[in-house]
Give the backbone structure.
Amino acid sequence: MREGFAQKNFERVAVAVSYQEPDQLPVFLNVNGPYIASYYNVSPYDYYHSPELMLKAQLAVRERFWGLTGVFPDMSIAPEPSAMGAEITWTKDGTPWVIPCIHSMEDVERLEIPDVANAGYMTKSLETYHYMYQQVGGDIPVSFGTTHSPWGVAALMRGTSDFMADVIMDPELVRALLRKTTDLGLMWLRNMEKSVPAGTFKRILIWDDLSSFVSLDHFREFILPVYEELYGAFPECERWYHNDANATNILEGLAEAGVKCFHLGDEVDMAFAKEKLRGRVALMGNVPPLKVLRNGTRQDVEASVKDIIKKAAKGGGLIIAPGGYMDEGTPDQNIEAMIEATARYGRY
Amino acid sequence: MDLDILKQAVTKGRFKEIEQLTRQALEDGSTPRQILDQALVPAMEMVGAMFSAGDIFIPEMMVSAKVMQKSLDVLKPLMVGDITSNVGRFAIGTVKDDLHDIGKNIVISMMQGAGFEVIDLGIDCPPEKFIQAIKDGAQLLGMSAILTTVVENIRRTIEAIKESGLREQVKILAGGAAVNESLALKMGADAYCEDAGEAPPKAKSLLAQLG
């Protein structure tokens, strides 16, 4: 099906991110471990721990959906915290989790930026990239450029509940920990940049579902400066951002951080986000991944896509996508319905 | 001392002052029960409402919870034997294979603030842990699931409780990003909570049904 569709779609994504109107709305299929592993009928643990299996599973999804999904080292939140010495636990059927290991300022001071050759899942992630590139790199681009630093990694290593209280009760600890995780994020991105072919490191995705847990004032005080530092260290890269929690409160902050493309969740009202970010930040989303894409009908998916188009297509800067990552067990026909509805109703 | 001062200390997150203020209120003649009912409970209700309205965010809520907890630490030893000191006994955990604890922790704060005795079962709880909590006297259970990959474990846990013969002794609330009202009820819960602020009133209403 659809010879050349993926390439054309890719070009339309670029147009949308530059806040222009392409001939046709693009679509983006955000998939990661839980969905891909379930699609390929393997356990998430096996998927995350075998580069070979990970690649096979990602290629299967890519083939099924006409080349619209990518190939990428996928170790969820594990690389950066594990590089700093945090223990990672893996549930039998689930995704990785970080055991909080920062209990005091002394713990923060003890953190050291590791050698990337000996940095837990960060090292494994690099190895997986090289494996994937060796296997398919000539034919399929292998994406590399996602970081969970600095805020998300700091929260996971401290424990989210305590970290949130620290914002008010111990801001010095928050700043000290962010200093370390920002340096870690910089080191991680520089190593990713070194790994990919010269001239192809063009996009940085900060993945941070926890940044909107705080007020806009706290976002500006703690998070904005470290985002600017991280993005700013790679001036040639496009600034992409993922947060599928309710990020309504920090929309203005994302524009201030110079984000070019925001992958947002379905709790954010698309019309409000469009109004707030018009001409500044392209929006990627926000078909509800659970209620509509996984549990709804084709008609529900179509209605959701039409609603998003009505609210946010005018003037460009829109990419239709799940409002988060595709849930495990999402029916193929609903994903097809999203792609088809975008094509049918998304003509400019 | 006007108990509104204590109430404000909780809503404004005045952690350093709360212990002294609580002791002052006791010295001035307020009973622990009055402090709980007229200051701490309404303060946390107000915090929950402000959070639901988007006027405050998680850091402010977590600090208010810590302030309230510090006040409770002063009051609890004085309330031993006060049979009305707890509204009810509530046990909460994330279901098996779910390790996200912040929502659970916020619900704990809200429930403690509303006067419930709370048993924190922690994260990644197998059904046996919930069953043991019922045996230990929990009248209400809270189950949360953030991950859609594990949401079925709410159903499995409730099924295991039924098989243990204890289902009639307990009311079950479910919540978390992977859950919605129809799913929660379909899986056998008695109520669904959209956010932490909904937990105390729904829990109180379920408790009344238990008799």
